[in-house]
Amino acid sequence: MLKLGRYVRLSLASVALLGVAVAANATTYDLGTTSLPAALGNLIPTPTVTDGDILTLKGLWDGKGSTALASKTSWYFTSAIPGLFLSGAQISNNGFANFSAQLFDDSTNTLLHTFTAGVTAPLISLATAGLYRLDVIVDLLHGHANSYTFDAQVVPLPAAAWLLLSGVVGLGAMARRRKVTVES
Fold it and tell me: How many domains does the chain have?
């Protein structure tokens, strides 16, 4: 049987418990579907997200009516605690000729990320607890039905970072043990 050191067992147990805690508390927040161009998104008060929660939203344009260039929709959510991240954030663009999506820290109007349709974003830091805004801007062309969808999961510091941190602590403990042995 493989013999694991105390620090390695402790690290593996803490990572496993973190994964169970995140999965047990997950809530899916559907911010809604908005019909463009009357695009208000969701209104404040917003859902407050925390570890493991999933965000999803949709925008639909039926292609009827007049052309409305640069229709902007703002979607809001609040982070419950500082230091969370958006993981697996992706927005799909189904047919809009001109399309952009950007995530902002709404309290400071700081741009956090510009999304490319169909590309999964790297981890996006939600460093402060507070209000966040996703702005989606599309051109609506008469006769062209289009849609977009956004999905992301809110996560704490990734498990890989915890594992790395526990490994560094373990190496430090081993170095300290060697130093004490050499001095004896």
Answer: 1
Helix (H) or strand (E) holding 88: strand 84-94
Q: Is residue 173 part of a domain?
A: yes
Q: Is residue 7 part of a domain?
A: no
Residue-wise pLDDT tens digits, 112-158 = 999 999 899 999 999 999 999 999 988 888 788 888 999 999 888 65
Quickly count: other Cβ atoms within 10 Å of residue 114's Cβ.
Answer: 10
151 within 8 A of 88, measured Cβ to Cβ: yes
Contacts of 91 (CB under 8 A, 6+ apart): 101, 115, 117, 136, 148, 149, 150, 151
**120: closest CA among 83, 160, 86?**
86
